[in-house]
Amino acid sequence: MARRSDIIGMDELERTFQRLGKVPQTVATKSARAGATIAHRAAKVNAPEDTGALKSGIILKRERRTKLGKAVYDVEMDPAMNDIFVKISKGGERSYYPASQEYGFLTVNGGYVPGYHFLRRAITEHTAEIERKIMDVTAQEVEKALRKG
């Protein structure tokens, strides 16, 4: 589930980076990781507790860098745990347990169980805190980089 969040003041920050010239990649990496860590912790707290595997299966993974000065982290389910998460019914139908907990599912008798939306809420309920953390860490790291020369 990809969720995009626009950060207030991001355009100004990008202009500042362009004025500074080449900013070390570590600035973007540390800032993005600091913000993603908040969402990662919140996702673990929000996850349903029927099985402990669901909470332990939520990981923080860095995407490959495609642009210098850009870093993206994903809060996602651990692919190494797919053998635990994929459930196969008697009819041979496969279902992915984390997706059913996030989005909801139909029961055998035709009822609907709504999803917990634990991954979505990790972002939406903590957007301001994530943005503030990213900006704070960015400011600290840019200051540190400027002091080094």
Question: Features of this protein?
Answer:
single chain; 149 residues; alpha+beta; two-stranded antiparallel ribbon
What would you note in describing this structure?
A hairpin with a 5-residue loop joins strand 3 (about 85-90) and strand 4. The longest helix is centred in the N-terminal third of the chain and has 22 residues, at about 25-45. The chain is of the alpha+beta class and about 150 residues long. The chain has 7 helices and 6 strands, in the order αααββαββαββαα. The model has no long low-confidence stretch (mean pLDDT about 85). The protein has one domain (about 20-149). It starts with 9 loop residues before the first helix and ends with a helix.
State mean pLDDT (0 to 100 scale).
Answer: 87
Strand content: 5-15%
Low-confidence runs (pLDDT<50, min 5 residues)?
A: none
Percent helix, as a range, is 40-55%
Class of secondary structure makeup: alpha+beta
Number of strands: 6
Assign an overall shape.
elongated
Biggest beta sheet attributes:
2 strands, antiparallel
Order of helical and strand elements: HHHEEHEEHEEHH
Number of helices: 7
The whole-angstrom Rg is: 19 Å
Strands of the biggest beta sheet: in what spatial order? 1-2
